[in-house]
Amino acid sequence: MQKRPLNPFDWHEADDQGMLVEGFKRMVFVSGQCAMSNDGRPQHPGDMRAQTLLSLENVAAVLAEAGMDLSNVVHLNTHVTDVDLFRAEAAEAMAERLAEYGVRPPGVLSGTTRLGLPELIVELEAIAVG
Q: What is the CATH number of the domain that holds 60?
């Protein structure tokens, strides 16, 4: 499999603007993952950084079920209840964690008024290829 970042513009700071992927055999679509424990309880109420990192670990757990890891992610959408708080407290930590796997996946950062449970403030959804 070959992945090539597509970056025609200089203004993106944390992610690639596109990703050309060729020669893969499998795709995994990861549904929205939040800061939930293994038994389905929300974790880290009000802590944007901790919720973001646990949400990312939950994405990694889903990928592991398919024999993949975060290096296989080619698209990552981030939904938060407070975009400014995410940028101030969690964006850099998430980018650093993804950099450990050599990825800067394109995606969307969107603000929403509420997620599925009132304690949740971050939700991540991903596409991975392998």
A: 3.30.1330.40
Amino acid at 80: V
Residue 12, domain member (yes or no): no
pTM: 0.90
- Please tell me the distance from the alpha carbon of residue 86 to that of residue 93, in angstroms, as a whole number: 10
Residue 40 within any structural domain of the chain: yes
32's enclosing H/E stretch is: strand 27-33
CB 77 within 8 A of CB 108: yes
H or E stretch at 128 = strand 122-129
Domain membership flag for residue 37 = yes
Distance from C-alpha of 5 to C-alpha of 73, rounded to nearest angstrom? 12
pLDDT (mean) for 56-69: 96
